[in-house]
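User: Here's a protein and a ligand (zinc ion). What would the complex look like?
Assistant: Let me lay out the input and then the predicted complex.
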Amino acid sequence: MPSVARRLPGSLWSLLLAVLVIGLVARPSSASRSEIERLLGEMQAAVLAADMDGYMKFVDPSDPVFLQEQRMWADDLRKNTPVEFRWAIQDPAVDQRGTEAAGDDDAVPARNANDAPGEGGQAFRIDGATAEAPIEVVWSMPGWPKPRTLRWTASFRRGEDGWRYSGEKWNRLESEGVLVMYADGLEEAARAVADELPAVRRHVHDGFLFAEDSPLATRVQEVKVYGSMQHLQASIFLSYTDGIAGWNEPGESIKLLIGRRTRAGSLRPLLAHEYGHVATFELGDARMPWWILEGVAELSAEVYGKSRERNDREVRRWKAEGKLPPFEEMAEFDDRAKKWYSQVYGQGHHMLGYISDRYGREARVGWLTAQARGDSLDQATRDVLGLSFEELDARWRDSIGPVEDEVPAAAPDPEKPAT
Ligand SMILES: [Zn+2]
């Protein structure tokens, strides 16, 4: 009996101590959770108000690449303001109920390793000044028949001014000069990127005459690997709906959509195209016509995709069918140019190849550099190639041969240097 009497107060003390400890540990966590929920609410309000500056105040500024991606993302809100946008922490239990209650296909969100953190059992987690939370985002643009829904695990960092949004939580893989950030389940694809990109970079550096010790060649290149089209699109702009496999803009990471298994053969042309953009933006800040950006990216990739001959056949056919628009119509990334989506790439590629063959690599790089530093297309063409762009265009059109009978094209030499 005495032992029981002594034990009871002991148990009570343990209980009290446990309550105290749980209280101390749990209180900052739940306080932080509500702070993060408030942050998400304020960001949501800024998105709906197309308030770019208001939104950017809540973005973690520690990663300059992510910061630039978010700037461009937020800037698009002014042109394309969503009619609906909500995001919230989606706890695994809530996640399950929501999915069951949805009941129809339209309401079931995209499901893959990247978009369904709830399925992996990941819940809100806080670790000192960093936190992770599975979130669900639902949004709709004017005219959309139904909203889009995505899920990912978001990360947050607490700075002096409180919690800030740090974007998706990524797995990381490093190789020679390359940092690959990827979602759960995409490790094999990420490994392929890490293996292939270093050699692709060297090829592109050669093509752009960047020395091995140049800032571009010595910089770590970030790549983000997405598992679904909608997730990649939403990371660019909420309004983005064009089907794409890759993306790059100045100061941003290379973004790729690749499946769980990716063969090097199909990955190399995609990497070379996107890294071709990275190299082009390195030449200067002025924006070149869209067809030049895509044309030189395609040129960077042609040795991997054996695409020069195939593209030449296509361009001959377009000429015969009257489908080679004025380059002027493909200058901006707008609806007028999007009518000629294939030509932006194919016609641009063909013209860049023509300039390379006629004038050489140094002249091609000089022509690009002059425009990247602010010269107009016509001025750069006159200064570097010695004729007006109108004359260059006419000569290029004359150079395109007639449609040939289908003959198997000679396989290009895979060792051919960049042109
Ligand atoms: Zn491109």
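Summary: Confidence is low (pLDDT under 50) at residues 1-8, 95-120, 411-419.
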